[in-house]
């Protein structure tokens, strides 16, 4: 499931393993969006 939408606060990735119509296992990855705002702000001038 993905890609992650930028407005989603904490994106999750679910990988489902199925046999027929039954879910037999699942891997979950929980992460965050990093936009580098702080780094961008250090190089900008505010004139």
Shape: rod-shaped
Contiguous uncertain segments of 5+ residues: none
| Proportion in helices | 10-25%
Q: What is the rounded Rg?
A: 18 Å
Number of domains: 1
What is the strand arrangement across the widest sheet? 1-2
Number of strands: 2
**Distance, first to last CA:** 43 Å
- Which structural class do you get from the secondary structure elements? mainly beta
- Report the sheet with the most strands, covering strand number, pairing sense and barrel closure: 2 strands, antiparallel
> How much strand content do the residues show?
35-45%
**SSE topology string:** EEH
Task: Tell me the number of helical segments per DSSP (H or I, 4 or more residues long).
Answer: 1
Mean residue pLDDT: 77
What do you see in this structure?
This protein is mainly beta. The protein has one domain. It contains one helix and two strands, in the order E-E-H. It has one helix spanning 37-42, and strands spanning 12-19, 22-30. A two-stranded antiparallel ribbon has the order 1-2. The longest helix is centred in the C-terminal third of the chain and has 6 residues, at 37-42. The model has no long low-confidence stretch (mean pLDDT 77). It comes from marine sediment metagenome. This is NADH-quinone oxidoreductase subunit D domain-containing protein.
